[in-house]
Design a protein that fits this description.
Layout (H helix, E strand, L loop, with lengths): L2 H24 L10 H12 L7 H9 L18 H8 L3 H27 L8 H4 L3 H9 L3 H16 L3 H8 L10 H9 L4 H22 L5 H10 L16 H9 L9 H17 L5 H14 L14 H13 L3 H20 L10 H8 L5 H8 L3
Helix pairs in contact: 2-3, 2-4, 4-11, 5-7, 5-8, 5-16, 8-9, 9-11, 10-14, 15-16, 16-17, 17-18
Length: 388
């Protein structure tokens, strides 16, 4: 048998076997279903047929076709361009779509970590899973069927292409962070500030073009989707929880609770301050600005000061500072520090699954994960404080 024909036969047989196993899995009664995935699937399905993906009645009807006992709609509040990602899901049966989505999210996290490791610890790509697998966000994004794996991939791809002087590809990758623009607001502000340089303008143009193209895809079946989003955000229907009605695991929410519970705008103050501070840092550095050096700080500050979200399933983006910290420990030969770091991240992950509770109760997870990222600095600090 010719080698090409044999290869084709192996691919066909292997593909058929994988498809058969996957079909058996999705057909299993009581199969675990990621909790939040149904909001993306239903929104994509509604928009695909020209309906209003921000109308709880239309969304609930789709969700009840999968979960008959559901009595309230789980709403998707991502901006309309995100529907370009969710509409293909709506064209697939829910269980198949959930399986494909979770595989894609896990694959995006692992692929992103491989790219980050290549930037921060060249020559050691096989160690990249040591950052991703113990990290809490990796498992919660799959458990909830959320979308932040793609956002992490966008950040990693942006850094990868910036370092290789390919601004158009970098900007296109950065467009993935628009899935939840509030989560990485400071990154968006700095991306705009980068337009001071020619490369930055090209990256910004590519990112804007990618978002615009995604919006066009969403508008084709539903030309009113922008208006529907604005109306739903401003005047949510009584059966939905408004954006201001969620208890959040972030400092901005508690600031609002302490100062002015009824004033939603207070939650945006920490984000505005952080954006201004990082923008000043960017302008002060000018041409010396290095995305590889600055991106871990930018992502960490963005998540800690986000005005909305910051849920435990949003934390995969923190793999940027996590991968940076572990890579630095490995690169400098601090094996004990690396072991402590990995073990610490694993302990955090186990604790979150061992102590189930309301999502806003996990306020400590992001600070704890980021505190471990200070380990690369700790030995140097001890040496400076030593009397010898």
């Amino acid at each position: 048998m010719p080698p090409k024909l044999r290869t084709l036969l192996v691919v066909l047989v292997g593909g058929a076997a994988v498809a058969a196993v996957a079909d058996r899995i999705v057909s299993t009664p009581g199969l675990f279903s990621p909790r939040d995935f149904i909001e993306y699937w239903a929104a994509g399905r509604v928009n695909l047929r020209g309906g209003n993906p921000y109308d709880p009645r239309q969304v609930l009807a789709e969700q009840q076709s999968v979960e008959p006992h559901r009595d309230g709609a789980l709403m998707m509040w991502n901006p309309p361009p995100a529907l370009a990602v969710y509409m293909p899901l709506g064209a697939v049966p829910a269980k198949w779509a959930a399986l494909l989505w979770c595989v894609a999210q896990f694959g995006a996290v692992m692929g992103a970590c491989a790219l980050l490791w290549r930037e921060y610890a060249p020559g050691r790509p096989w160690r990249a899973p040591a950052a991703a697998l113990p990290f809490v966000g990796t498992w919660w994004v799959v458990t909830y069927g959320q979308n932040t794996g793609f956002m992490l991939l966008g950040l990693a791809g942006f850094l990868h292409f910036v370092r290789r002087d390919r601004p158009l590809a970098a900007g296109a990758c950065a467009a993935l962070t628009a899935l939840k623009p509030h989560l990485l607001a400071a990154f968006g502000v700095l991306l705009i500030a980068d337009a001071l340089s020619r490369r930055g303008r090209r990256a910004l143009a590519a990112g804007t073009g990618a978002v615009a193209a995604a919006l066009v895809v969403a508008l084709v079946p539903n030309p009113d989707v922008l208006e529907q989003f604005v109306t739903a955000a401003r005047n949510p229907r009584p059966e939905t929880i408004p954006l201001s009605g969620y208890a959040l695991p972030v400092p901005a929410y508690w600031l609002r609770v302490w100062l002015a519970r009824e004033s939603f705008w207070v939650q945006f103050v920490p984000c505005a301050v952080a954006c201004a501070a990082l923008l000043a840092r960017r302008l002060r550095q000018g041409a010396a600005w290095d995305w590889g050096h600055e991106l871990p700080l930018v992502v960490a500050v963005s998540v800690l000061t986000t005005p909305y979200g910051g849920w435990i399933f949003d934390l995969p983006v923190l793999l940027v500072p996590v991968a940076w910290a572990l890579a630095r420990l490995v690169r400098t030969g601090r094996r004990t520090g690396a072991v402590v770091f990995v073990a610490g991240q694993a302990v955090i992950t186990v604790m979150t699954f061992a102590t189930p509770g309301a999502l806003h109760a996990y306020w400590w997870v992001a600070p704890a994960a980021l505190a471990l990222c200070l380990l690369p600095y700790w030995p140097a600090h001890v040496r400076r404080m030593s009397p010898h």
